Recover the amino acids of this structure.
């Protein structure tokens, strides 16, 4: 027998209700999982911020999350003891110059690799990839140091910048992905209008690459800012060139050789501010990238 329209409507509504009911457990599981990830991500940060406002004895004893006495003076003391003004400038200079130069190199190299064919192209790309997946760590510190000494850069921040520039492969491949979204017809049209190879790159392609450059700048700046081993090794003989990450380690022990965990936490909170500022400025580019990825 043929079902009436009312029965069909009721049956469809019932089926839709059952499908939504079946989806509830999966949504609940996903929600609980995301909540757990959020808690595990933010809880250490919360403990650090609150610990930076406690006394050293209170941090060492533990047992309470909130400080009994809110000591905002810990930040001023950490800033004074670790010479944060000098170390912050060193870190800012190294991170900024490393980011600018790495973006320029990656953008130019990515443009040539994406738009041109030349002998050794595959080998160059493979070498760039190998620097990402093959980490030899401290093994290269000695030859790197000898190279910098031979170039008379061991008493300058430029020696550290030169070493850190070797880790730009991730930005290189990231920018190549953005080049794939820029039509080649723009290059051809600009060439027909009389633009040279460099004119096409700097006047046409580079402005369109702005979101990719912003994302790459965030990752490169963060890596350079958080680097510890390389600045530590290259500034052992010249403490005035130490970066903020190295200076934070100096807060571990005070003048009486007692552990100063509360000051280390305060210094760590201060060192997070530049990364947050860079992210705020790059957030718009992140939104552009996300919006472009869902167009269809």
């Amino acid at each position: 027998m043929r079902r009436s329209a009312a029965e069909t409507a009721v049956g469809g509504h019932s089926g839709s209700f059952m499908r939504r009911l079946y989806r509830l457990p999966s949504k609940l599981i996903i929600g609980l999982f995301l909540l757990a990830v959020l808690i595990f991500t933010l809880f250490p940060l919360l403990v650090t911020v609150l610990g930076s406002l406690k006394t050293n004895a209170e941090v060492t004893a533990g047992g309470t999350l909130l400080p009994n006495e809110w000591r905002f003076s810990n930040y001023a003391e950490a800033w004074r003891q670790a010479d944060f003004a000098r170390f912050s400038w060193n870190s800012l200079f190294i991170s900024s110059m490393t980011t600018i130069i790495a973006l320029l190199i990656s953008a130019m190299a990515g443009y040539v690799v994406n738009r041109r064919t030349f002998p050794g192209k595959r080998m160059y790309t493979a070498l760039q990839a190998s620097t990402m997946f093959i980490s030899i760590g401290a093994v290269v510190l000695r030859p790197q140091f000898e190279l910098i000494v031979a170039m008379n850069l061991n008493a300058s921040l430029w020696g550290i910048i030169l070493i850190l520039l070797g880790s730009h492969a991730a930005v290189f491949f990231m920018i190549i992905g953005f080049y794939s979204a820029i039509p080649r017809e723009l290059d051809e049209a600009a060439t027909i209008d009389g633009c040279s190879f460099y004119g096409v790159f700097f006047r046409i392609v580079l402005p369109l690459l702005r979101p990719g450059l912003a994302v790459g700048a965030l990752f490169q700046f963060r890596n350079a800012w958080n680097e510890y081993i390389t600045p530590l090794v290259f500034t052992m003989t010249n403490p005035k060139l130490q970066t903020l990450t190295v200076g934070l380690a100096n807060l571990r022990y005070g003048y009486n050789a007692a552990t100063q965990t509360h000051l280390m936490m305060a210094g760590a909170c201060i060192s997070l501010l530049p990364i947050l500022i860079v992210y705020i400025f790059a957030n718009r580019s992140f939104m552009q990238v996300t919006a472009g990825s869902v167009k269809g």
Observations:
- Confidence is low (pLDDT under 50) at residues 5-11, 289-296.
- The chain has two domains: 5-51, 75-293.
- The radius of gyration is 27 Å.
- Residues 25 and 31 are 10 Å apart (CA to CA).
